[in-house]
Write a structure and sequence with these properties.
This protein has 5 helices and 5 strands. By secondary structure, it is α/β, with parallel strands linked by helices. Strands 2-1-3-4-5 form a 5-stranded parallel β-sheet, with helices on both faces. The protein is globular. Bound molecules: 1,3,4-trihydroxy-5-OXO-cyclohexanecarboxylic acid.
Length: 152
């Protein structure tokens, strides 16, 4: 897939991630989603890219936003949260995108309960970062910018 210049990156957070900071902080960390999003926007500025963020607890809303990413973004970072493990609808939406997509998980899904080991969505993405906490999002943004810079 020919890469577009990386001007806008959309970061999508799935269900229950609005409760970060309060939700099992020993697994997901102490930072709130707002604090993480602020860091991502700042990191984007330093890398010369606009970072937009979106969170929803609703599968259909996430599908709508992924579909919109095709026109609005040059790269996508997504933590589909629990829908990672179940959602054919999210996978189908991701599959239709012609921009690079990185799936991020705060926790290492492969060290957790076996039902979390399978990602329905990962086969429709460019790559996956799991278990690095909020740094996973920062690395994903850097990777997208790097990929576009390296593109022929
Ligand atoms: C998660 C891992 C999922 O298994 C879980 O349902 C989440 C968060 C993570 O970021 O580690 O909600 O995607």
């Amino acid at each position: 897939m020919p890469l577009k210049p990386m001007k806008t990156i959309l970061v999508i957070h799935g269900p229950n991630l609005n409760l970060l900071g309060r939700r099992e902080p020993e697994i997901y960390g102490a930072d709130t989603l707002d604090a993480i999003n602020t860091e991502l926007v700042q990191a984007g500025k330093q890398l010369g890219v606009e970072v937009e963020t979106y969170q929803s607890n609703h599968e259909g809303d996430l599908v709508d936003r992924i579909q919109q990413a095709a026109d609005l973004a040059d790269g996508l970072v997504i933590n589909p949260a629990a829908y990672t493990h179940t959602s054919v609808a999210l996978r189908d939406a991701l599959q239709m995108l012609d921009i690079p997509v990185i799936e991020v998980h705060l926790s290492n899904i492969y060290r957790r309960a076996s039902f979390r080991h399978h990602s329905m969505t990962a086969p429709a993405t460019t790559g996956q970062i799991t278990g690095l906490g909020k740094n996973g999002y920062l690395l994903a943004i850097e990777a997208l910018v790097g990929m576009a810079a390296d593109a022929p």
